[in-house]
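Structure ticket #2291
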Amino acid sequence: MYRSSSPVSPWPRTIPCRTTDESAPDLLVTTLGEIRTPLADGKFDPRADRVVLDDGATREHYYRDTLKIDFYAPLDKSAFPLPPSGWCSWYYYYQQITPEEVKRVAEWMGRHLLEYGARYCQLDDGWQGTGHGLGENRDWTTLDVRFAKGLDDLTRFIRAQGLEAGLWLAPHGQSNPEVVKQWGVFLVDESGASLSDTWEGKFLVDPTRPQARAYLQDLFRRLCDAGFTYFKIDGQPIVVDEYKKHAEEMVQPPEDPKLAYRQTIEWIRDAIGKSRYLLGCWGIPLAGAGIMNGSRTSGDIIQGLDGLKLAARAMQHYNYLHNIVWYSDPDVCIARGPLSIELARMWASMQGLTGQALLTSDRLPDLPAERVEILKRVYPAVDIRPLDLFDHGSKLKPIWDLKVAHLGRKYDVVGCFNFDADAIDGFVLSWRKLGLKPEALYHVYDFWQHEYLGCWEAGYALNIPPATCMVLTLTEAADRPQLISTDRHITQGWIDLLELNYDAQRNVYRGRSQLIGGDPYTLTFAFPRAGQTYRIASVRAAGARVTIANHQGSATVRLDTQRTAQVSWQVTFEPAEIYRFEVDPAPKPTVELIGAFRYRLTWDRSYNNEAGFALYLDDELLAITPGNQFVLRDVPRAGSHSFGVRCVWWDGSMSKEATTVELPEGYPDELYLSDAAPSSAVQGWGSLASDRSISGGPLQIGEKTYRKGLGSHAVADIEYELAGRYDRFTAEVGIDQNNGKPEAKVTFEVYADGNLLWESGVMTNADAAKPIDFDIRGAQILHLHVGDGGDGIDYDHADWGDAKVTRVPPGATSRPQTDDRP
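Resolution: structure written out below.
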């Protein structure tokens, strides 16, 4: 049984929830501990499956009816209070895995990651002994010659390292005809030929045959006897689909194929008991909800940014299921090269901020120390739960906010992610949009760089290089020293901090922390920005070597022990002075309009010193930024606006006047719709994609690839507010060439102020792109619609290539396309 290595909040219990992201669409919000936040719009009772909104409205059977989880039940955490953490063999070794390599990794894990919470060592595909093709090696009764010593020999070694042994299989499938004849429990016709030959196996278990239960339970009991305590069962949605397809061909046609499938999972659960972990795999096997401990939510990942984004979409897409219905598993976290260390840190940060199942799949003994260090700061997965109880779709959100409450400390750990491979992205962490107090001061700390960034009001703005991230910790400032970070884990205190008290009379912090032998442990304190400031005067920590470092506005205590132990510590503070510098006025910014109502502001640094720059829109403070470039978004569309900059010092003092510049009109003469934020975008699957297809690849219709455009999915309705400023709309539309389903069908329609301008008729993969060129002079709202073509929405990946609106130069005329007007 998995033992908790960090605190676990009571479950099930009523929790705060957010049911829409309309107020902050770029934000993914998770919680750790007992959280209260104005971002919540209601409360969710998991036992009753009921949401009660703040306005008094009630949504009964919220998960069952609103989120379509037919078999919803709150996650049973009695045997597994936390998601699994560990290692999987697949994404390094694939089917070339050997027992010697598993042992080598397990031995290394036991020495280097066990104390950090890595527990599971999972053997994936390649152990079984019949063939190596997809659907051909599904014989669970034989072993590959590499495993001639037996699986129990391997599991004994894994357990000897203090780890648990896991195993992959696709149990409903079978490829050995002799096993099929012996048991007589498979979907076959009267001649014995298979009725279901799929990736799951050459043959498929028929759950209505008398001995089906005995077959599955015999299989899993043998594997339990071999020493496995974690089972990853693959291809599950295939099984459900095949039972639907072949229901009439079963021995006793079931009334509900989903219930027939659930019966097989119940049999497996009975065989392995509650103390062994059961993970569904491939797609989202929702029919196993309430029985499975977890579900893999991602497709197979690959090394590089594309693999990271696939995992990121799975994390945010299905986060509403995690730690409520089951433990979501976004597949493995990659740390090895040639993946850049920035991407490795980014991948680990996403895992750490969502608390989803955390398995890596590297050859761990080969990892350089700096990459092992990244893994140590996110192991183990902890008791994080979503605030957002809805499907975020596939459009990647750049800001992931983990709200933490622990031992009287309340703080936010905020990940800022740039998923673009080429361009720098600008972020504004607005206190208001994060649900913080907009008028309050917050200490800002960079977790990965171990750097205190100051104490600021309104927000913090920063530029993130391509394919990298920053993880910032925000703590509301007080008029005393404050503990703002510990460096054991990305949650910064949840795992390691066991006790914490502040004696205001003596100006002393006392605490107790769980330290790991040989791993230096750092406490970071911050001081008031103005008025009386402080420095560390002394530290006592029994059994640990102490190193103190005092800085302007902050200080650190490093504790070193050779043995893993709980260490009690005491930090005493004394008054200190802060150095002040009178800053100069900021140089005048230059303005560049990029897209619609987005501005790139750039200014030179002053000759003298400053801590950063205060940014203003129409004399209202937006944020503080350390850099001299800023991308301004969300500008009101009515009226004229100004942007101002002031230099600022660490104590909050600023240059007397802001250097301001007037912003140009926010409607450029030519506007690609992918550069503008739609006023409304609703579609049947995923989120609207800018300059890529809905599946994440390039926009491609037929042989033509488009650099700009929109990727959408049927059924979609997308609206843009044009305010009568544009004369012409042009685009080329069609089904994305890489949609994965040759028979996909969609329709396109274009409306201006509710009037139908054009419709495509049904389009298929075989159709070339259709051009659109319409006069939209005076239109307030441009509405784009994608229909499903009458065959459902599966794989209906629709592209609006080079979709843009333009102003016609004076003296010219718009050229409406009239051939296809209704």
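Closing remark: The two ends are 66 Å apart (CA to CA).
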